[in-house]
Amino acid sequence: MKNITVFVNNEAVYDYDRDITIEEEQLVFLDKMDSDMEKGIKIKGKLVSKPDSEQRATFVAMNMIKALQQGNDAAIYASSAYLVHRNPTLSEVHVNDEGKTINVEFINEN
Q1: Cβ of 103: how many Cβ atoms within 10 Å?
Q2: 4, 109 Cβ separation under 8 angstroms
Q3: pLDDT 10s digit of each residue in the chain, 110 long?
Q4: Model's pTM, two decimal places?
Q5: Integer angstrom CA distances of residue 82 from 45, 56, 101
Q6: Do 30 and 85 meet the contact criterion of CB atoms below 8 Å apart?
Q7: For the chain, what is the domain count?
């Protein structure tokens, strides 16, 4: 498996090549993202004071969707890199925002 594909409302909107080499300073930034999230994150308007790895991934995926909507390439790249490095078997991210809330589902390779 080479890419992670991001789907929004069942439409593929972004592919990230998991073979991209991440520089050391970028890996340090991913660790800082984790450190920042340890202080708590908001998901669907609710504060999660001690987020687990899936909650962190959901938070990052939701921020990636926002970055895609805004064309923020740096945030898209950082979010994608985070998801790949923290979830090595991840193959797809599915986001559905057609209802009252945003739902995020992660698909891992078998």
Answers
A1: 12
A2: no
A3: 578 999 999 999 999 998 888 899 999 999 999 999 999 999 988 999 999 999 999 999 999 999 999 999 999 999 999 999 999 899 999 999 887 788 999 999 86
A4: 0.90
A5: 22, 10, 23
A6: yes
A7: 1
